[in-house]
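seq as requested:
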Amino acid sequence: MKYGRPDSEFMKWRWKPDGCELPIFNPSQFLEIVRGKSMAFVGDSVSRNQMQSLICLLSRVEYPIDVSYTPNENFKRWKYTTYNFTMATFWTPHLVKTDEADPDGSNSTGIFSLFLDQLKDDWITQIEEFNYVILSAGHWFFWLIKFYENQKLIGCHFCQIENVTDLTMYYGYRRAFRTAFRAINGLKNYKGITFLRTYAPSHFENGIWNKGGNCVRKRPF
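struct tokens:
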């Protein structure tokens, strides 16, 4: 409404799962359930947004304090001292080890190199202490990507490189999650519960989110 949207019907719609009714979120009840526990959000900006939304919901009860180990905004930790509950976010949009051909390209316009059988140490080595780990990734697999296994180039997505097999984004998506789950299951001290947050489709039309795309739909599909 702040930016001049003329309709308000969208404010009356809510997401509803098939076959059940979700009760209104109760922040006090949630914090009691997770008292003494910890939760990690691992993935891309959608994962980070989910954590930020949860912080907003819980703010009706308590504001957390920043207990991050680093000033890097991609690796934040928040603690609710009254409940001894910690939330953390780990930025890893592809989950696996990634190199970018043009790191200075705006909004990651270079070709990514994904090593589908290797994970990034900046998250897999940090999650053993968490009671809940939520994995979320998807949108970044639509970029130009070279796929590697055993240090060898096995294919590419959207690259159109001569003599290189053209693979779909789903190939890399499946392999990346498979590598991530196998690594988590192999952690000796991890006793938590792992959740997969399924892929959220883009809802922008006439361009991507930062290139003039808009969301003018007034009703759900």
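The CA atoms of residues 90 and 122 lie 8 Å apart.
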